[in-house]
Specification:
2 copies of one chain form a homodimer. Chain A contains 14 helices and 17 strands. By secondary structure, chain A is α/β, with parallel strands linked by helices. In chain A, the strands form 4 sheets. A 6-stranded mixed beta sheet of chain A has the order 2-1-3-8-7-6, sandwiched between helices. In chain A, strands 14-13-15-16-17 form a 5-stranded mixed beta sheet, with helices on both faces. Chain A starts with a strand and ends in a 9-residue tail after the last helix.
């Protein structure tokens, strides 16, 4: 089973938007065991869209078209598919009702052009998931199929996971299962991990049991992805579990989470289990720590709040930071952690100070020098790290390192912290 | 002159790397006045690379191949191009010497496989820029041309700017210039804008003076992009300025910025010009407002800080929010705005309360109901909006709408606010 992807939009060709959708879809197809040999970007031009579709159908069994399903005049994916199918567009009542209802629920006027989105190629079926006003489509052409999904990433993903991938797998009669598991780490560099796991990777290359890949992902940590293939879910899950165990022996407690677990979800879960709470003083971390925590479902059970400010007068008045302390120092980070813990009446307070490459800074620190501090009811301690990268990267690394300081405390980890 | 781009690498198809190179090259081609109608990703497979090259040459004058020029066995771009040219690979002495010298300069041993990179299709010329060990190539095929550049972004960019783009422009005899300008709006929906500008778009389609495209970009607003082409930079700039004026007459003060200006950069700039400052109370907006503001260069000149918390006791103690007020209401939003203004001793305080789809919520509000409030020294006022989308989208729209409330106040805008 081969499936091509056609990403539609002149703005993609002009580089105004980077086509991340095709990359995500390519990854999903690979995990579903479906080959994808070509991925094409084409502009909002009907003749060229039709040519690309015909070419794709000449060499693949299925095509996913992404984009061009909006209500405006340059959204012509529906027309192009109808052309290739040799059919007309017909108004689809279910979709039209759905769009009307969405506008009513929002208490907004529906522009007449919105109903263009309900015009679909004759014979096409709407994809049942419809998180926005753009309907996805399943368009059969003989034994082949063209899917149309919107270019809005979350809408595309919902439709791919809910309908397109299951439909493709069923058509392909896919029985082999490919699965992967991500071990998220913090503490080793990417090349440090590669060295640590070199022998294991060589063994796996020879036995063909699994593949291992690394991915440095900023605030998400450095990911170690294990992928394996087998007859059924059970055997694949068993192999993944075994390999995870091998890798845990090598990497140890630098592994902080699995798959979608982020550092912040891990610390909030640990806090919830203990009935304890957290507060954050932000400055260097520029609000990133608070927004990462608040994005977690039910964060407010354990996350008491964060105070974001760079102003010395406010830090002094609200958090009790003495004006005498050097702003970038272990002492200041500790004072902020203690102060913010009290400000929000939390069990733990955390804070970072540091040099993120801006100019208003002490000369005696290297770029990327960051002091991380953690205050409990009775204690306060801090750690100094030197983080690589530009300002944005230093901030992100500071946030995950700060959260990791709390994780290590909560789990009583005593191995040396590298980052 | 048409130029296609072929990005080469199985890791691109699998989504392990996002193809940002093609996007950047597409933007550069557009600015050079060269059309690029197709961009393709293909894996490290010689037959499919050859097929893609032949197809590209059947419909374009030039092709840029990006990637697959390294020393390892899966780097086969050289072989694929030689196949299409119908020639052999020959060792190129200048390149071989260059690679040897680079290794010597870095004090590293050269693996014999590295000299594979000096084998080029007979008749090909090396690109003079060579920042790494992978040489770029100019491969003439009759009146057409295939360029090969490495996938390492900075190496690719150096070669494109230094050789490929000038060579393409010379071949094309290009004298024309293409430029675009983005008007960022907030207040109309995408389809509302399309309706508003429909006549203007029709006029432009007929006159060919410019093209207009829309892009809904979440917290970045809804973008209206005008693109135009002309003999020289001056005439193009003049046409863009004229078209901007036309669109401003239609869209009015719903336009908040141009090109890279964000809503937060606009309000901080307005505040700076007045020597005034801002504080934010966050809850519904989940720290997004503070982190957007803090990410702006020199934000701390005008952004006093933000307090992020969902805890009623803290809001009561720190911001003076009465426990008697319904948490999701205009009154609560106003009280938070007043409280946070005082907490941070700022000129303006802003805050939002609302229903973002979570469960702990009043039943008498529709999903997406948000109350936005702005407090000044002497006044406080609020606005109710109903925002579409999932939780994350509602939060993002709440943030840009909240910033817009302040922008409208600072500019004394009295037209009705739609969002």
């Amino acid at each position: 089973m081969r499936c091509e992807i056609i990403a539609i939009g002149t703005e993609l060709l002009l580089g105004q938007i980077i086509d991340t959708n095709s990359s995500w879809m390519g990854g999903q197809l690979a995990l579903a065991g479906i080959d994808s040999y070509y991925q094409t970007k084409v502009g909002d031009n009907q003749a060229r869209m039709v040519e690309s579709l015909r070419l794709a159908l000449s060499r693949s069994d299925a095509v996913i078209c992404c984009g061009g399903l909006g209500p405006t005049q340059d959204d012509i994916t529906r027309e192009a598919i109808a052309d290739v199918m040799g059919v007309k567009l017909v108004r689809h009542d279910w979709i039209a009702d759905h769009i009307r209802t969405m506008f009513e629920q929002r208490g907004r006027e529906m522009a007449p052009s919105n109903l263009r989105q309900a015009d679909v190629p004759e014979g096409a079926t709407p994809i049942k998931e419809m998180p926005g006003t753009a309907p996805g489509l399943i368009c059969p052409i003989g034994q082949q199929v063209v899917y149309a999904v919107p270019g809005v990433p979350h809408e595309m993903r919902t439709m791919l996971e809910g309908t397109v991938l299951p439909d493709l797998k069923q058509r392909a009669g896919v029985t082999s299962v490919i699965k992967s598991r991500v071990l998220r780490t913090w503490g080793y560099t990417e090349s440090g991990l590669a060295d640590l796991l070199a022998d294991r990777i060589t063994d796996l290359d020879e036995s063909g049991g699994a593949t291992i890949a690394f991915q440095a992902s900023g605030i998400e940590g450095i990911k170690v992805r294990v992928t394996t293939k087998g007859e059924d879910t059970e055997s694949v899950d068993g192999r993944l579990a075994l390999e995870e165990q091998h890798l845990r022996e090598l990497i140890g407690d630098y592994i902080f989470g699995i798959d979608d677990e982020t550092m912040e979800s891990v610390i909030l879960k640990l806090l919830r289990a203990r009935g304890q709470s957290l507060a954050v003083a932000e400055g260097l971390t520029a609000g990133i720590a608070g927004s990462r925590l608040a994005a977690i479902e039910n964060a407010s059970d354990t996350f008491r709040g964060s105070l974001l400010t760079d102003q010395p007068d406010i830090r002094q008045r609200l958090l009790g930071l003495s004006a005498d302390l050097p702003p970038i120092s272990a002492e200041s980070a500790e004072a902020l952690a203690v102060g913010v813990r009290q400000h929000f009446a939390a069990d733990f307070g955390i804070a970072a100070t540091g040099y993120d490459g801006r100019t208003d800074v002490h000369e005696d620190h290297k770029p990327g020098t960051v002091f991380l501090a953690l205050a409990t009811k009775d204690t306060v301690h801090s750690a100094k790290v030197i983080l690589p990268g530009d300002r944005n990267r230093i901030r992100q690394y500071a946030v995950i390192s700060l959260f990791n300081l709390l994780r290590r405390h909560l789990l009583d980890i005593r191995s040396p912290a590298v980052l």
